[in-house]
């Protein structure tokens, strides 16, 4: 990336903190933003603090990739509190949505949980600062700054978050996306009651024991449920009534575009979930859902099929009985589908050959994930030859071929076995890579990334 002259100059200015008294008082308002960007990218927490404490605009949005260093974020939050008592600070809205990085990632970013705790600490600290600066504090303090962020709540941070949301002070915490892990349905319900509904776009519930009644209550609110303890393969008391309630709740979601469910084990219930939605979905993520042939048949003829832009059916086993439905579904979505994941679906060479024509007709497809499928080198090369002929495709996640694994692998290995089974060090895996790279080079597709790196694969890289 080529830096502008303004960015280069800003980086040079914030490099030496000892010189800040010389220029801080004379910086025009329009230069605060480039100076802050330079301070964040150059990891200059002292400069970050001094700029934010004097922030001259009503709004400060910090959204940058990669995520800023932890020290810079801490300095920014402390400066917001100090700015409450600084007459030079005009800040009224602090927007940190999407700022969280991966804990322990490159550059020491602040993860979602740490950022949430830090934000709540800032809110509570601002209340204490206000109390100390006033002889008498009113019950309903005036809100000076609204703080918007994506919040991550689990059992360890629940009390801190609740304390921040129930505190009346100069900072008001607002949420765009809420991620809740390992907390009960009642706690999630209480949390939603405390959060301002204005601007709350979604709730992501993970690793929680919600039950059928919890599913009926939360799904119309959350739209993302991942690894929650729910199994509808066995009949449970009240299950039918709860599913009817769920269907009624989903009918109220007139603007729903995205539905994401992971590992809920809902065989035969897809019609209940999707037929209630009057408006077609654009994003549908259903990995590990134990989908039945009837589920896939319904999806292929539903009103959602022709509008899907993103579809994830990973870890739902496909075979001859479901192939017709999958081909029909791909045909319906051929003009809209941009991201498709069929990883861990048990696709063999024979199944893939029958599926390739339908995949090749997806003319809008930009990323395709087929990891952890039991393909041979021959099947893999058939896949690659098809991929290079798809002009819109930018990224293909392919599986390691069966020939690359150590002896002893079952004839029809599961995705879990393919994930855990060691590759054979005696085999030169570079031979497979060479074949793939040769096909890529001969096609002239320098814009297409072919990878078997499951851990670092990211479909959003091509957006």
From TrEMBL:
InterPro entries for this protein: Leu-rich_rpt, LRR_dom_sf, LRRC14/PRAME
Name of the protein in question: Leucine-rich repeat-containing protein 14
The family this protein is said to belong to: Belongs to the PRAME family. LRRC14 subfamily.
Subcellular location, record wording: Cytoplasm
PANTHER family assigned: LEUCINE-RICH REPEAT-CONTAINING PROTEIN 14, SIMILAR TO PREFERENTIALLY EXPRESSED ANTIGEN IN MELANOMA-LIKE 3
SUPFAM superfamilies in alphabetical order: RNI-like
Principal location listed in the UniProt entry: cytoplasm
GO cellular component, one term: cytoplasm
Record keywords, A-Z: Cytoplasm, Leucine-rich repeat, Repeat
